[in-house]
User: Fold this.
Amino acid sequence: MALVALLALALLGKGYWNATRDPVVRTATVAVAHWPAGQPPLSVLLLSDTHVAGPDMPPERLARIVGDLNRLKPDLVLIAGDLVSEKRLATHIYTAAEVVAPLGLLQAPLGVVVAPGNHDHWFEPDALRGVLEKQGLRVLQNEAVKLGPLVVGGVDDDYSGHDDVPKTLAAMDALGPGVQLIVSHSPDIVPDLPRPVAAIFAGHTHCGQIRFPFIGALTYVSRYGGRFACGDISDGGQRLFVGAGLGTSIMPLRYLTPPDVWLVTLGPEAPR
Assistant:
């Protein structure tokens, strides 16, 4: 019995260590048709699911991660929702100002864009948006913005029923020509798109968060199962990046799903 208890403690300890390790920086390149002539490639940093809450993601840890990410020198940062967390095992819940403060340290010439997630809507959505905007971060809820040669649409959270893909696409089209990107907390919006955009950036699935050898993930929190589970995905001609996130949900544990971010370089297609 003592051995079983010791093994259980070791397993929990390993899961917590996995959850609190530094994020893996994953990289990819997207060749964009009709890339603007003379425009150098641009790098887009995706981070998601920061889930600021004790014990695993206090604001101090997120601030340290942000400092490391700034060294990547992205041109644009996209945050795919779930800034906060309501973990059942949370030891501390922070205020909206405490949650957002580390994100205000992000540096990118084209700025930082946030699409809210389900936990943000369950927390204090208006307070979060107010603090984010005060810190200079742009929040898009079925809205769009033009940033240099990029037209960025932000779809509000699908999981909690706040998404409006047609409204977002209309807002993007109204801004005129540009390289169209979408940031959305949930990747489940992909089948709702009537046409592909250059790339979609999402989170929400945590890549399963808890996966075991031979069994796989316990759940992906998606109505499409593992279709949009994790990583660099091509689906029906649509390029999609789904991050594992930085924080955790429900339990501060991770197995076979390290925290990660994506650094994606957008540029012209290679000449034929």
The two ends are 67 Å apart (CA to CA). The chain has one domain: 2-268. DSSP finds six helices and 14 strands in the chain.
